[in-house]
Amino acid sequence: MNEENMPKVKLGVVAVSRDCFPASLSVNRRKAVIDACKKKYPDLDVYECPVCIIESEVQMKEALLDIEEKGCNALCIYLGNFGPEISETMLAQEFKGPKMVIAAAEESGNSLLDGRGDAYCGMLNASYNLALRNVKAYIPEYPVGDAEACADMIADFFPIARSIVALSELKIISFGPRPNNFLACNAPIKCLYDLGVEIEENSELDLFEAYHKHDGDPRISDVVSDMEKELGSGNNKPEVLPKLAQYELTLLDWIKDHKGCKKYVAIAGKCWPAFQTQFGFVPCYVNSRLTGMGIPVSCEVDIYGALSEFIGTVVSDDIVTLLDINNSVPKDLYKEDIEGKFPYTLTDTFMGFHCGNTSSKKLAFCEMRNQKIMARSLPEEVTNGTLEGDIAPGKITFFRLQSTADSKLRAYIAQGEVLPVRTRSFGSIGIFAIPEMGRFYRHVLIEKNFPHHGAVAFGHFGKTLYEVFKYIGVPVEEIGYNHPANVLYKTENPYA
Q1: Model-level pTM greater than 0.90?
Q2: Contacts of 75 (CB under 8 A, 6+ apart)
Q3: CB neighbours (10 Å) of residue 331?
Q4: For the chain, what is the largest distance between any 2 Cα atoms, rounded to a whole number of angstroms?
Q5: Which of 17, 319, 378, 490 is 20–30 Å from 261 (CA)?
Q6: DSSP 357-413
Q7: Residues 453 and 374: beta-carbon distance below 8 Å
């Protein structure tokens, strides 16, 4: 993974105290939370702010200055007791990065006189005052706990905070308009600006020119050698590797030269219909390699697909992919390889596919081939460049963040798995199983007009993605998920 394309989070923990409660409650409880973080999560960068905010806006400014000077780009406001609702929420308002609010549980039935902090009550006032100030903050499902529980909440917040930081410093670089008859990949870019994401839209001709400026690049041979090592016995198209290496260098140099004031990059790339005839190959394998480096590349100039991939990369701290929600599983294959062996119905299963853009690190096996669909109407030699193989079995999260035609954000999240079953097909492809997928397909994907591309994170990250989508402003009613069998969708026929 490219560490330069992944933000690092330093979280400042600021304790607060109401002046009619002992300040020592907040100070000592804060120290216990920090100690628990160091013990349970030593890799997290957590800073203990020495300023305890009581009922003073001056102290709020002191705490803000301290955490900013220490390089904190995320904030945890910790109610060690009831807390001062004004100054604590002013701190949240003035701090520019992502923030969370948590509260201390009472320690013992033997300390409910001078040792009672009432942070359970203070959390209500804090949330009310945050709303009055129009301040977004992450509040865990149950935000009151002892030191160990609060450390767990802080650990849960880190990938959320990392995502928010990342989006504020992201540039999406796109090449070319969406292919004709691919309106599904076209959505207004206004929501990107609302999120703080910058976009640079380029022509395919710009990319073609940059590619040819790399003719004879002395670095090509080294990239070819790396590709040969990665492909191993699957290197079935060695003649196309120099072209692919030249294209990879073109993209990497473009990122370096066009990142501008932003820190992180994702790419929405063009791959057809004229790409293969003019460049002489398809870019799928290069897309897979950049995504494997932690620089997500979406196919077919899918801008919100690239955005979704990037969020998944940051949340999972791992490689992701972008796939078509592609085809149903044939009944005979289901009966032979799935029925009775896995707890899924036929309509719980489907095949996720793309031409060859999934990193080799996420495939059970792989080989370089030509793009079968394109080769039906074009010379085979210009369709080489796909990385084909079955996707490795294991837990997955299928998700997408999307803009509607009227520039409103909506999203979906569904957890499931890739089954250890041979697909008997081509491309980067896997047999996916998601509980109640058939109903989810009809009443979320179709009903909410989502396009056919979905991002795939390798693991279960629904909890974090849900909080990220909420934080960035997706209305909760617009975050679709696969309902259990006994929970109807609003559009579902109860008699069906």
Answers
A1: yes
A2: 11, 12, 14, 67, 91, 92, 95, 97, 98, 99, 100
A3: 10
A4: 83
A5: 319
A6: -S-GGGBSS-EEEE-HHHHTTS-GGGSEEEEEEEBPPEEEEEEEEEE-TTS-EEEEE
A7: no
Give the residue among 457, 447, 478, 429 at the shortest CA–CA distance from 308.
Answer: 457
CA–CA separation, 471 and 74 (whole Å)? 14
Q: Which residues contact 165 (CB under 8 A, 6 or more apart)?
A: 7, 9, 73, 74, 97, 98
Residue 226 phi, psi (nearest 5): -65, -40
SS3 38: helix
Q: What tens digit of pLDDT does each residue of 167-200 get? A: 999 999 999 887 777 766 778 899 999 999 999 9
pLDDT in tens, 291-307: 999 999 998 889 999 99
Q: What is the chain's length?
A: 496
In the chain, what are the domains? 3-167 (3.40.50.10940), 169-481 (no CATH)
**Measured distance CA(49)–CA(62) in Å, rounded:** 10
pLDDT greater than 90 at residue 372: no
Kind and range of the H or E run holding 75: strand 74-79
Please give the structure tokens belonging to residue 348.
């719980």
Please, which residues bridge with residue 200 across strands? 173
- Name 77's bridge partners: 14, 101
Distance CA 353, CA 424 (A): 12
Residue 184: per-residue pLDDT: 65
For β-strands 384-390 and 367-370, DSSP reports them as: antiparallel
Do residues 363 and 389 touch, judged by C-beta distance below 8 A? yes
